[in-house]
């Protein structure tokens, strides 16, 4: 039996722009087990969205997956035929976004759009069944008087309600995996908290896995089982939520966590670490974080660090955990 629901192996995604090849994702690997919540954090432009869109087949020209594989339930996503692909994106895996209007069509009623998602999942189902299931879905996402709401258009919904309607549409296919890309960033704090409680609740009820992309470390601490920290299109650290917050190893992660006044508080956004963001058109030969790293060694400048498994399941891509670098007596470069 396949244990992982999702397995990403050495994924590389580039955008071929007139200025050159933008290496947005540079060889990331991770696995996700059924029913788990994986938080992905990292500063703007670190490749969080691009790596997740790749799972859904949403990378368009000039973007291209140039290397690696994505396996879902043991099946190679790139080898799926058209009907498998259709079933995969929408039914097996669904995605929600910061802006619900990415998913909701302003010219159709919410009921019409839910019906379409349900038909995508169940094929020919009766009108009565569609109505019954649509009402169930709107109730599940906490929309009151769902019978009335079905005949309304998205503009008749408030921002928070649109977010709920988008989640209902994503759930129509009963996905095994939900990818949530900054789902609450645009909402005010009270509505954010409600939507996150809703996602947690639904996750418990349905047992679906979630990939949760966010700038908010408080949300990650609250919701995720495991965490991936990205920098410059790579995973610099990954581990359980406990080990990332209480025993982080990578200088970038340490900097992020140090800058948090209170982890338990939501709304604790990543504070940018000093120094310039990395140029994805001209990636450095060595560690991408080197120009901003206070612990940088000479070896970091020209040689990419390998990944070091520092404890059960906790991995860090940093030279500091290589005995050879530590024994060589190298002086710090930036300190
Ligand atoms: N259509 C595109 N054309 C060229 N480059 C792109 C395109 N889409 C994304 N990129 C590049 O890919 C990099 C990674 O983008 P991505 O959207 O994954 O970042 P992110 O981590 O999700 O950031 P944010 O937190 O701001 O959403 C960006 O720095 C950008 O330069
Ligand atoms: S590999 Fe070197 S430059 Fe990169 S994070 Fe580790 S110590 Fe800093
Ligand atoms: Mg993004």
Automatic annotation (TrEMBL):
What would be an example GO MF term here?
ATP hydrolysis activity
Bilayer-crossing residues are: none
Pfam families annotated for this entry? ABC_tran (PF00005), oligo_HPY (PF08352)
Instruction: Give UniProt keywords alphabetically.
Output: ATP-binding, Cell membrane, Membrane, Nucleotide-binding, Transport
Biological process according to GO: peptide transport
Domain ABC transporter, first and last residues per copy = 6-257
Family recorded in the similarity comment: Belongs to the ABC transporter superfamily.
Stored NCBIfam families: oligo_HPY
Protein name (record): Oligopeptide/dipeptide ABC transporter ATP-binding protein
Which organism is the protein's source? Ruminiclostridium cellobioparum subsp. termitidis CT1112
